[in-house]
Backbone:
């Protein structure tokens, strides 16, 4: 068994995070095949039913099955968060690599743009984009990606600036290796672990930001299920005893975000033993 995999398997916190994330991913993938109820089906005669054997998570105000909507909401949250993570990695990582290695006016220009983006709180920035483009899936994705890109950029830029001053980079330049080949062959492999750690953190950030946009009505629009929107709908009945409407989607957000954060923290400790020693 590879040493890295063996170390992960011996880490209970890492295992816990991975198991929780895997359970929610399997719920999103296999749920529709196991629980064959249309999440958009309205049945007014079954409205606001508490959890029972027929509806394990109860029904909402128009009789829609909450479990079916929970599964559909998990699909939305996971897919959007994955898109944001991949897009942020590609765009922010590429800009960070280029600016950190090239330096000069390009580095200054891109850094100022990123600083301007970072001057806005991430959720406020995503909300502004969603307002400007109109509520919906596309605007929510664009807003969250825009908020995530500077995180990748700043982390990768600082890492590349450190790497470009190492002796083996000077040797590659002396041998006439082009900047593009130097980045691909010598710089990029040294930043993979950093990108991986950041991607785990951004995945968690995407889940929470998407839920926040849905909560204020700027994310995915009803009747499509989304955990943040489901919590908003459940608030109207929180004081009348229908606790299940907001509890289950809120629990899904908490578990998914907490598991992603736990994995990111353990990866950071694994690849950066100095930070683990300082924390201890």
Residues:
């Amino acid at each position: 068994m590879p040493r890295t995999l063996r170390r992960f398997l011996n880490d209970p916190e890492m295992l816990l995070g991975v198991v929780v994330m895997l359970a929610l991913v399997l719920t999103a993938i296999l749920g529709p095949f196991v629980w064959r109820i249309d999440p958009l089906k309205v049945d007014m005669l079954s409205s606001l039913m508490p959890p029972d054997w027929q509806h394990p998570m109860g029904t909402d105000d128009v009789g829609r099955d909450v479990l079916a909507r929970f599964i559909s909401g998990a699909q939305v949250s996971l897919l959007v968060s994955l898109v944001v993570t991949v897009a942020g990695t590609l765009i922010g990582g590429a800009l960070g690599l280029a600016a950190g290695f090239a330096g000069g006016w390009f580095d200054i220009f891109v850094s100022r743009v990123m600083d301007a983006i970072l001057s806005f709180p991430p959720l406020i920035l995503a909300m502004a984009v969603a307002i400007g483009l109109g509520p919906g899936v596309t605007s929510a994705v664009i807003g969250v990606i825009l908020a995530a890109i500077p995180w990748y950029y700043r982390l990768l830029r600082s890492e590349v600036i450190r790497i470009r001053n190492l002796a083996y980079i000077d040797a590659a330049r002396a041998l006439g290796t082009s900047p593009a080949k130097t980045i691909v062959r010598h710089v990029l492999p040294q930043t993979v672990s950093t990108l991986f750690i950041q991607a785990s953190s951004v995945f968690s950030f995407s889940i929470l930001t998407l839920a926040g946009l849905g909560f204020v009505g700027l994310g995915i629009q009803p009747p499509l299920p989304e955990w943040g929107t489901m919590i908003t709908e459940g608030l109207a009945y929180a004081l009348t005893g229908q606790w299940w409407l907001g509890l289950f989607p809120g629990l899904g957000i908490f578990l998914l975000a907490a598991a992603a954060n736990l994995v990111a923290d353990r990866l950071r400790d694994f690849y950066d033993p100095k930070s683990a020693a300082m924390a201890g």
User: Anything to note?
Assistant: DSSP finds eleven helices and no strands in the chain.
